[in-house]
Amino acid sequence: MTSLLRPIALSGWTWSFAAALAALAWIATAPPRPATPPPPSPPPPLVLVREQVAQSLPGVVALAAVVEPWRRTEARAALDGRVAETPAAEGDALDEGAPIAVLLPEDRPARLREAEAKVAARRAEAEAARALLPSGGAARNRVIDADARLAEAEREEASARQAVEDLVIRAPFPARLERRIVESGRWVMRGDLIAELADVSRLRVRGYAAERDLPLLREGARARFEPRVGTPVEGRVVFIAARAEAPARTWRIEAELPPGLAPGQVGRLVIEGPARILHRLPLSALTADAAGRVGVKSVEEGRIRFHPVRLVGGDGGDALVEGLPERLRLVVRGLDLARDGAPVRVVAVP
């Protein structure tokens, strides 16, 4: 009987199992732990905006340009010979027909006198033959032959006279002698360059326009050339090329200017066009989207909106653009803080 009341010995795994049951019972009866709240969302980025209103501005095209003489030419020798004298010096203002260089005459005047005498003789023969016309058909044949000999003599006289005239190389129009190639004593051949001349009684300024500017350009439009050094000069457009020049696909534009500037001066040609509805905005307000399009950002109903624009000009740190609505809330600071369509907070600035 005593052996029946002895305590039962429990193994180690039995104690472990009992402890696990006790822990599960405590977890089941313990009160629930409160849930951890999610972290607060960051506020939308802050951007600065200003009210932007379109303006009606005159269309303006500005081109890099260079001044040129109204026209240039090269004086060349019309026959072979030695230069006898050069009455005109570089820089001289020449009237039309003024001599630039004179060749030694050699025997050309004598040939002209011979040709003139021959014409006089042939003319006398032709007149005598006509006087015999009433005598019959043979006289008519003599008239035809005499007239042919007279015509040949007149051609020889004209050639000899032209050779004498060509001894003097002259200015073909009023011009400035820019460069004289020959000096007295030099032998020249027909076609050799004698001098270079430029008409600077008026000037032309040449520039090249992009395709986007063509709708604003017209012949007769007012233009202003602003040289790098000197005072701006008013003029007008006189030429717009009908086709583009490769490889840049630009169109040559020329304007007429009064005299005063030096050929070769460079500057900016500003051409007035018809009025356009444009926005003047700071260059810092321009940005680009993922596709590389240039534009600006505005805020509409609390969200960013991207507007592609076309840049048409600018000055003094401002840009002139078109392609925007008449009014918008333009983002001027914080362009990189929010993408298109993202919510933002707004602070208005003047």
Structural notes for this entry:
- The protein is α+β, with helices and mostly antiparallel strands and 350 residues long.
- Among the domains are: 47-57 and 277-348, conserved putative lor/sdh protein from methanococcus maripaludis s2 fold; 62-69 and 200-275, Efflux pump adaptor protein, beta barrel domain (Elongation Factor Tu (Ef-tu), domain 3), CATH 2.40.30; 105-166.
- It contains 3 helices and 20 strands.
- The chain has helices at 12-29, 108-131, 137-165, and strands at 46-53, 55-76, 81-85, 93-94, 99-103, 168-170, 175-180, 187-188, 193-209, 222-227, 233-240, 251-257, 266-282, 287-288, 294-300, 303-308, 310-315, 318-322, 327-333, 345-348.
- The chain has a 6-stranded antiparallel β-barrel. A 4-stranded antiparallel sheet has the order 6-5-3-8, with no helix packed on it.
- Helix 2 packs antiparallel against helix 3 (137-165).
- It is rod-shaped and about 160 Å long.
- Mean pLDDT is 87; it is low at 1-10.
Give a quick rundown of the structure.
With 350 residues, the chain is α+β, with helices and mostly antiparallel strands. Among the domains are: 47-57 and 277-348, conserved putative lor/sdh protein from methanococcus maripaludis s2 fold; 62-69 and 200-275, Efflux pump adaptor protein, beta barrel domain (Elongation Factor Tu (Ef-tu), domain 3), CATH 2.40.30; 105-166. Helices cover 20% and strands 41% of the residues.
How many individual β-strands? Answer: 20
Termini distance?
A: 106 Å
Cα Rg:
47 Å
Structural class call reads: alpha+beta
Outline, from the CA principal axes? Answer: rod-shaped
Number of helices: 3
**Which oligomeric form is depicted?**
single chain
Main sheet summary: 6 strands, antiparallel, barrel
CATH architecture of the domain at 62-69 and 200-275: Beta Barrel
**How big a fraction of the residues is strand?**
35-45%
Task: Kindly report the spatial arrangement of strands forming the biggest sheet.
Answer: 2-9-12-11-10-13
Order of helices and strands: HEEEEEHHEEEEEEEEEEEEEEE
